[in-house]
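Pinned message: reference record for RND family efflux transporter, MFP subunit
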Amino acid sequence: MRKPSGIVAAALVAAALLLPHPNAMADQAAAPALTVSLVAPAQRDWPETVPASGWLKPWQEAIIASETSGLRITEILADVGSVVKKGQPLVNLSRDSVLADLRKQEAAVVTAKAKLVKAKADGDRARQLQPSGALSDEKITEYLADEQTAIASVDSEQAALDSEKIKLDQTTITAVDDGLITSRSAELGAVVSSGTELFRLVRQQRVEWQAEVSARYLPRITEGLTVKIDGPDGQPVQGKVRLVAPSVDTSTSRAIVYVALPTDVRPRVGLYVTGAIELRTTAALTVPETAIVFRDGINYVFTAGKDNRVKRVRVEAGRRNNGEVEIVSGIDPSAKVVTSGGAFLSDNDLVKIAGEG
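Predicted structure (tokens):
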């Protein structure tokens, strides 16, 4: 009967030796989970912004077309991407037939003027002889009528000559304004018709952002507001609201805000970019972006108490700017927030504060 008691006693002694000492367990439990840095939320004055997205499009686009018909393109002097000045030649059309018509019309003017000289002489003679009765009233009326007809004929032929000169000028198609050519449909040797589009031109190289915004923001958006755009090359671009569209798209409940870009900024048209319209400046309580821990679709931060234990606090995030996040609700301005490493912490963890002995 004593033998089993001895075995039990030996087992208890062995278990006691294997179990850790209570002091060792306490030391292990008290070991900090992480060394962290703390920061107090900062008070900032940040502009309230409206998010927007849309296309970069020309401020105004000009269509350069032929004003005459039946002439062949003999020379093309510009291409897509060319920066041109107002009045700069872009296309030359064949001029032979126009020059021939011009010479013909010049001869017609000379003939009409010669007839006018004769008619005027006959009219002067008729006016001189009218008191004497040497000419009949019928003949005098005929001479005077011929004089008026000759005058009208000269005016008509001169107008036709001016028209031919205009046609000659139209054989050289020029830029209607300073700008950048974005498309070309002119082809060498093609016979053009009146109104045939040859080029498209971005006037003055001015590009604007046509930003789509929710209709609920429209009452607060006015001309002249500052706009910050995420540039295509990653560099921010600052613009100004030029115009707010008077109508709202009924299918999307969004409206277009036209944003003028600086004249020295010329991004490519047709790009889709995002940005924000600054409404007014308001106070913001902010923490570093690295302090935010995102779990299960919820934003948290960890705050540290005097006992160096952290507490997970649910917060509502707002605006973001320069690596900081606005905390709309959830923390007290006097709280001490863990700046980074929150993803490795749990509620009530003991931490070591950087800079403390």
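Pinned by admin. Summary line: Confidence is low (pLDDT under 50) at residues 12-17, 23-28.
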